Amino acid sequence: MERLGFWRRRGAALLLRSRGAASVKAHLPARAAFDIFKAGSIKGVRGEGMPIYRNPLEKGNLYIKFDVEFPENHFAGREALQAIEVFLGEQRSDDFEQWSVGDSVDVVDLLDYDPSSQNRRQEAYHEDEQQPRGSVECAHQ
Questions:
Q1: Verdict on whether the full-model pTM lies above 0.70
Q2: Where is this region: Disordered (predicted)?
């Protein structure tokens, strides 16, 4: 597995390690805005990983591992919590509607990570690469 900062590459799959939801929040579609990601949970985006060897038009999957650190109960007093609320702003359900889909925003579905299905796909690609390729020969007359 090749490490690229917060990114890791495993075959055609690209894994992203996210610390906290703030960096991901702006990119999540509205339907996923209120999903709860537990520490260590992994979600995938189909077809957004690394290009497949010898088939650059097809891509592997992108997997995101969420490292979430929750504070202990009663970690702050009322004044501190109000200051945090002012800093974060009022939560509204339409916050994600302000993002327009275009060059810098893609709407994708987050899938649950299933390592066994990823292994089956990689095995199929390896089988394709290992099969001998026949060449066309000219018939002698």
A1: no
A2: 117-141
- Residues 34-51: pLDDT tens digits? 566 777 888 888 888 888
Cα 7 from Cα 14, distance rounded (Å) = 7
Domains (range + CATH), the chain: 2-125 (2.60.260.20)
Whole-angstrom Cα distance, residue 113 to residue 41?
A: 8
Contacts of 128-136 with CB under 8 Å at 24 or more apart are 129/53, 129/54
pLDDT digits (tens, 9 = 90+) for 75-87: 888 888 888 778 7
Residue 11 CA to residue 123 CA, distance in Å, equals 11
